[in-house]
Each structure stands twice: as structure tokens, then as C-alpha cells.
Amino acid sequence: MEFPLLFWGVLAWMIFWAVAGAILIKRRYLAQDLDTSNASFIGAMSGAALGPVGLAAVWARTPKSSGYLTTALGLLTVLIVAVTFSFADPDNICVTSGGFVASQFVNGLIIGIIYGFMALGLSLIFSILGVVSFAHGEFYMIGGMVVYFVTAVFLPGINPLMGVLAACATAFAIGAIFERLMLTPMYHGKIDRPIEYGILATFGLAFTLQYFVQALVGANPVKAQRFIEFPRWRFPAEADPIWIKTSRGSMTLFEQVTISSPRFTAALTCILVLLALLYLLHRTWTGKALRAVSQDREAAAIAGIKPDTMNMLAFALGGMIAALAGALLVQAFSWLPQVGAIPAMRSFVIVVLGGLGSLPGAFLGGIMVGMVEAAGTGCVPDPQKAASYIPAYGMIVLTLTLLLRPTGMFGRRFASGAHGQF
Amino acid sequence: MTKQIPNIAGVIVLLFLAAFPLVYGAADYDYIMHIMITAFFYAILAASWSMLSGYAGQFSFGHMGFMAIGAYTTGLLCHYIYLSPEPTGLCTETPFFGQWLVVVNPIGVTSTTLTQDCLRQAMDAWGGRVEVTRMPVPLGILMGTIMGAIAGFLVGMLVLRLRAAYLALFTLGFSEILKATISAEIDITRGQAGLELPPLYPDGVTLFGTYFEPTDKLPPYYTMLALLLACLGILAWLAHSRFGLFVRALREDQDAAAALGVNTTRYKVLVFTITCAMAAAAGAVQGHYVQIITPNLLFLLQMSLVVAMAVIGGIENFVAAAIGAIILQVLLELLRNSFVIGGIEVDMTIWRLVFFGLLLMITLRFFRNGLIAPLIAYFGRVGVAEETVAKRASTLTGPGGGPHRTEAPD
Q1: Where are the domains positioned within chain B?
Q2: Residues whose CB is less than 8 angstroms from the CB of residue A38 and which lie 6 or more positions away in sequence, other chains included
Q3: Is A421 in contact with B360 (Cβ distance < 8 A)?
Q4: Which residue of A213, A329, B240, B408 has the fewest CB atoms within a 10 Å radius of its CB?
């Protein structure tokens, strides 16, 4: 970095005013007897984006918190950080090369879609059961393992689609059985402190599954074949630059952005399954019943919905979604029994950022985290350090979200049940 | 008499643990002693975690983070701070009571040897003329404990508003941030290569006329046992005082407790500070004992081990949690031997953890107070039930005749 003082100075300035804003504006809203649930977030963002001027304006006007205001302030903050960075480090590849930025952008988008899809499963489980599943990463790992064993060990040469379906079925079955055996008693008043019990039970499942797979498979990394090989194709044939050029393993857009086949198929499948899931949730009786249970268990039960069945379905579906993400990514990464930890952490970050229990929030949060990760790996000088810090970026987002706005972007407060309060 | 069984058993176990290193003399002495020391280490963590989660209901997944704060504080202080009678002229240094406090510059793991830092260069120039002293180990452990308490205090202040799943995720995030930072700042912490610490007793120790080498297992055994007993003593004192009553009220219903006049903020922060300080102390001592610390201390699986031990022992009873930790740690080591059934070799190094996970789930589902705590409670309550029944019978046949109370509560 050429002018580190500029960057860190601006950052320190923003952090100072953000902290001041978070505390002062909260006090102000409290004193004015206004809704304080978003006050610290608005305070922090206005302080970070506009400094003392913004804080003074918010202090004087005490605006009602609207989505537009918070989004605008948040975007402004991100923009200021980005502009400062480009001034502080003018020779960085992220500032000089547009092609690199586009490539990072597309890759971040793709990985973000997959992360978001996986987080969707976690969010679905939380919105209906009120349990944060700590076994989500293990479902992801099992999905990949099943695909590898079906397509490479038991039945070599079989259509990979069969492997993916087998992975989904396995995860669905494990999820359903676990829910029925371990989590159902939570909802019949047999457990003292259901929230803690839910966390511990999924934690136990994660522990058992991980070591069970390790005992069966061993600790050597495995990797599945590419599912789909692109045909060689150029479009348009004579143009310069060529818009789309494909080779067996990858696709190049405008001779700048390269997308590998595994990531492309994974992202495409995720979008298709997401659409199917939205159809299920909003257009079928089962989906409506699921959403009804997430809104109010007792009222849903009175209306003739079996909450226990919906619980089981939700947990199994959530696990299946994670397994599907794993099944699609096993062609891109090498697979170990411990591979689930990183995506599980990402999923926690995403669901908290998007709002625990919110499905659109999970997807949007996933794309944002994917982008941040792409920017973090591509742009930060000293790549080795940047790579080590990547898990921390997400966790900083998580802790800040929990402190400033525990409902996340689209979260709602849950009326009752085991969801817990904050 | 039966009521005293847990106490008698406790005394017997204590005597056994105290006498064990003196009477045991088999060839695998060092190995067994190492297992026991590690078991005590986990027992401190499990007991303090059960105080935090079981008593106070603050479900933290960052306990290993505080442990690592303790270990890394003492590790970094011992690694970077020296006392020298003469100024080196190379390092950052300040006068300190007639001597010089030297802060060694971080060189990380990139250098070919470990002796390239400014102090080593200065010592080469002096040619053995000047003796520098390292930071004393007990002071390092004390600093680690204080740092753990400060970190616990800060986290406690931050999480006042968060409950249940939100708290679990926040503390998990804290632990992950710490892990990423330690792994990334290779210059200072040496990252995955691990930070080397001086042994617990760098010059050896003489006990009752017997000299023990720094690598001998007996002194750290008693040190860790003493730390465990001290922690259990503090926890017992806290649990039986108003503090214990208040934090349990906090667990059951925070709002109701606040409405009845419990200063919830204060007790929540206090319980975080105390238990995190204990975890940090355990981490610091263990760090000096094994003499190397890596960021892998912070793996979620390490945390899950502590959680599982506390749950299987009994999450709402810290003594049971500590006993559970010791038993499970010993058991896990004994189960390491692989065996062969019907021509298939069963690799017990992994399978034992599978069984451990299953045991955790079964305990959670069917024995929600753990496996050890009900035993203690059973013997502790033997007389109580009869007494209550007798009292009820007497009130039924007594002058009042009804199921209402006749005598005033004392």
C-alpha cells in the first residue's frame, strides 16, 4: 500500500464516529421515547458515512428508521471505504485492472450464490424449529462424500445426477431421523431449556457424523470428476473480443472472466433448486403449512397442521439443501471429513447478516459474503495474510450485526416458541 | 450416613489423586501422568464452562478463546520481554528500576534460525558478559489470567442484550476472529508453527529434598491439581453464596430476576469475568506445561470436547462436570487401542470419538442432568425424601388435618 496512513486514518475516523454514533444516537432515541431497535445501527452508519455532520443531522431530526435510509447509509459507508482504498493504493490490481475486477466479481457472485443457498437451509431450520443447526457443515460434507462414493467407488461411470440424488436422499433421511429422535421431545415440554438443548443436540450430531465419516473413509482427501464437460464453442465466431468461448473445463466471457465448469453447474443448479423451493414454500399446501408453523405453532396446530411433521420436514429439507451444496461442490474442491467447518461458519455469518429465519435475507447475505470474500482475497495487499484473515472478515460482520442490529437485514422478531429472544 | 457418601467419596478421590504420582511406578509413568494433567486441564475448563452455561445460562462457545488468550498472553510475554542489566542499543527498551526492560522485535518464522532477533545479536556482541533474565513464569500466568478476566469482562459487557442462539453465535464468532488473528499474525505469534514457551519450572524444582527436572511430570501434576481445586473451591463458594442464587435466577428468567431486584448486568458480567479468568489460567498453565501453543487450540472440536465433557458429567453441577471431564479424558486415552473383529481392523483412534458423540447425544436426550450429577444428587437427597414424607404424614394426621402448612417456615 502506497499511502497506508491515509487508509488507516480514514478507517479510524469512521470507526470512531461509528462507535460514538452507536452510543449517542441510541441514547437520543431513548430520551425521545422513540423506537430504539434500529437506533444504534443508524447511529453507527451515519457516523461512519458522514462523520460528525451526519451524526448532528440524525441527532437533530431523529428520523424514523426506514429501509431506504439504512440501505443508503450502509452503501455510502462501503463506497467511502472503497474510494479511500483506491486512493491509498493506486497501483493495486483491483484499481488498475478492470478485467480482474470483473473476474473477481463474477467468481464472488457464483460462490456467493452457493453459500447463500446453503445458508438458506440453516435459515429454514431456524425459522421453523428455532434451532441453529451446528450440524449444517456436516450435512454439506456428507453430500459430497456420498457423491464421491456413488460416482467414483461403487458405480463408476454412472450419471452424476444419480450421485446428487443419492446425496440428497441420504441427508434427508439423516435429518428426518435425527429430528424425530432428538428434537421432537423439545416441543412436548419434556426438555427444560429447549434452546440450549437444540444447540447441544445438533452439536452432538455434528461431532458424531464427522468422526463417523472419518472412521469409514479415512483422512485422505478425495475428489469427484467434473459432472459436465462443455462442448467447444465460440460465440460469435468472428467477433473480437469473443463474447463466449468454452473449452472442456471452463468458460471464458469477453476473454476476461473465466468460470470453471463445476462452479457454473453448481451455481446454476442452486438457482434452479432455489426457484423450486420458492414454489414449494409459496404455492403448495405443504409450503404454506411450513410458513404457518414458523409464524405461530399453536395457531397452525389449531388450523389442522401437524407442527411435528412440519418440524421434521423442515430439518430434513434444511439438511438436504446443505448436502446438495456439498454434492455440487465436491467436483470443485477436494473433500475431507473436516471440510464442513468453513461453509458452516460462512452460513452462520450469512444467516445472521440476512436475519435469522429470513429466506431472502439468507440469499442476499450469501451473495454479499461471496463478494466480500472475493474482494478480500483479490485486493488486500499481502495475500498470505489476507487469506488467513478471511474467516475473520465474516465473523467481524457477524459480531457487528449481532451488536448493532440483531435482526439482520430482513429479520423479524419471533413471537414465541423456542426461537429465543435477544 | 448415606448422605455423607458423596463427601467421603470425594475425600477418597482427592487422597487418591494426591498420592497417585508418589505410589504409581510403572514404566508408562510419564504417559499416565501426562493424561492426568491434561484431564485436570479439561476439568478446569469443563467446570468453569458449566458455571457459565449451566448455572448462569450464558451459552458461550468461546471458552477455548479465553483459554487461548491466557496461553498466548503468557507465551508472548515470556517470548518478547526480557530484563537486562545493560542497554542493548538494538531493541526497544526502557529503564526499569536500574535495569533495562527489553522488548524483542518480532521476526516470525521466516528467518532461518531463531537467534536473529535484536537481543540475541546484542548477546553475541556482549559475548556472555551480561546475563539477561526472562519474564518469570508465575508472573506470566498471572498476566494471562488477568488478560482472560479483562477479555471476559469486555465480552460480558458486549453480550448483555444477546441470549440463547445469538449469544452462542457471537461467542463462536469471537473465538474464530481470535483464531484467524493468531494464525495470520505470523510475525508475532508464529502462526501455525506454534509459539514455544518456557517450561512451568524453568530451573527445575526441589520438593522435600528431591530435585525434579523441568521436564519431570510431578511438579506440573500438583500445580494443575492445585489450580483445579482452587477453581472448584472458588466456584463452590460462589455457587453457595448470593451470587449463585442470583445467576441461577438469571438463567431461569432474566426479566423476572431483574424485576425482583437482581442487578442482572452486574452478575452477567461478573460470571463472564470469573469463568473466563479460570479458563485463561488453565490455558496459561497448560501452555507452559506442554511448552508449545498453536491456534489449533481454538478449533471448534476442542470446544465441543469441553462441552461434551460438561454435559456428560452434568452441566448444572460443576463438580460433576469436572469429574466427568477427568473420567472421559482417561477413558478416551484408554480406548485408543485398536482391535480386530472378524478380520476387520477397527481403528479405535477415530471410533472412540464416534462412541463419545453417541454417548453425548444419549446423555442429552435421556439424562439431562448428565451421568455424574444425579449420583451425587441421589446420595445427597437420601434423607430428604423421607423427612418430607414424614412431615407430610404428620400434617395430614395432625390437628389441622388438611394438606396446608401448619408450622411457619423457618
Answers
A1: 2-78+136-339+346-380, 86-130
A2: A65, A70, A405
A3: no
A4: B408
